[in-house]
Amino acid sequence: MHRWSFERFRVDRETLTELLERFLAVELWQKTRDPLTDGERSELRRSIGGLRHPVVVEELCALVATHPDAVIRQSVLEGIEPFVATHPAARELVLWLLGDDEDFVVFSAARIAGRNRLGEAYDELVHITGPAEVGLYRSTKPVGIGAAVVSKAMDQILGAEDRAARMECEREYASTGQLPPGTALDEHWDYEPENLPDPVPDGMVRIPASEFVVGIGMDDIVHPLYDTDDAAPRQTRYLPDFLIDRYPVTNRQYDEWAGSETAVEHLLCHPDEPADKDHRRGLAGDARFGPDNPATGVDWFDAYAYLAHLGKRLPTELEWEKAARGESGSLYPWGNEFDPDALRWFGAVFGEARSLEHWRDTLSTFDEKTPAVTTVPVGSFPKNVSPYGVADLVGNCWEWTDTNFVTRDRMQPMISGRPRTEWATADETSVVIRGGAWTSMREQLMTFYRGKDLFTDRHNEIGFRGVIR
Predict the structure, then answer these.
(1) In the chain, which end has fewer C-beta atoms inside a 10 angstrom radius, N or C?
(2) Helix (H, G, I), strand (E, B) or coil at 451
């Protein structure tokens, strides 16, 4: 049972409910109660260790962060240690409890941060003891157990053997802003590669672990009308194994889910999703977007929710680019030469664009009848396949990713309760889209091209596919 699946969510939610009733309910600890026995603490940690679904782990961490009983906070903190490499919520709880009022909770958080080399914790810890240079030759305040525990954790995070070595690491960090290799900062994975489904589920492709080429270099031909500075420089990156859908999600697949009870329950929807959101497609009544065509007319929240209920998520732009380009970084999934017959694009729908203004003027004629054909069924172009066997990665429809266009970090929507005028142009709402669409000129169809859109928009040009990580 994959840790992202809806079935896993149900099982883990039942476990969390049982833990809440027996140990974690706040009202139990608001009045006098016997402390947990060693056996109960072991049972609590064991039950926590069996959790897998990220949403349930996040709920647990949020519940415990402000729990009134320090022993509960410490016990859960110890129980979530195995999750710090794969669950952002577990790392956030460690950071939060570094500021706890109780010494033994802080000590546990610091030791976990040190053992797991949590780079995120470094700036929190340095506030407690100060940098190594301050106390290299003589003792400084604060003194005692806390300073010793925190100093040890800082040594472990930096990979330093002693205070002098740590001082060198801290000077490098102050100069470059980069912690030494091996810290968890920006290097964690939100999955467990060894636990990927095997055999590969129907409709998915395994992308093997390897280095691969992303971006563009000075020798790559770029149309002068398109700003692609954000795709430079050409560089080599690395990703472990992951699974990706062979084709984009179709209207038939999406509509079946959007009309189901699970879509209405919103159990696995993004927590920042607007209340009572209707996930049904805005284009459901337009016959040009047929059942086997890619599911367009859906926003980022729609795609997130659909995939979450299947135990998947949106790909990051690096995952998408590796799946599209292979290890060598080809300009198109099939190679380095553009083939107008290999995909659905502007030229196939309207004819070659003579200029940007001609392109814009042509697209402005779109209405309920023009053009007669928009997207086409997935798999319509056998040549449009990457070296790994992933199809339809360019043309037909853009694809939502899980990457913020501005920061290049994972998307973290935060619009709930805020007026649209405040967030509509904010950095956190700009999502990377990849691949180009039936309305795209050839320069937008290259595998390195980074498009962007507002994550609440439902365009007939943007679809999606899922990954399992």
Answers:
(1) N
(2) strand
Contact (Cβ atoms closer than 8 angstroms) between residue 180 and residue 156: no
DSSP 436-449: --TT--GGGGSTT-
The β-bridge relationship of strands 242-245 and 430-434 is: unpaired
Three-state SS at 372: coil
> Cα separation of 336 and 333, whole Å?
8
What pLDDT does residue 383 have?
97
pTM: 0.79
pLDDT averaged over the chain? 88
Q: How far apart are CA 263 and CA 276, in angstroms?
A: 10
Peptide bond just before 233 cis, omega within 30 deg = yes
User: Backbone phi, then psi, for 213, in 5-degree steps?
Assistant: -95, 135
Residue in 456, 458, 459, 462 with CA at minimum distance from that of residue 418: 456
Contact in structure between 375 and 294 (CB atoms under 8 Å): yes
What percent of the chain is predicted at pLDDT more than 90? 56
Strand partners, 204: 245
Query: In a 10 Å sphere around its CB, with 0-12 CB exposed, 13-18 middle and 19+ buried, how is residue 337 labelled?
Result: exposed
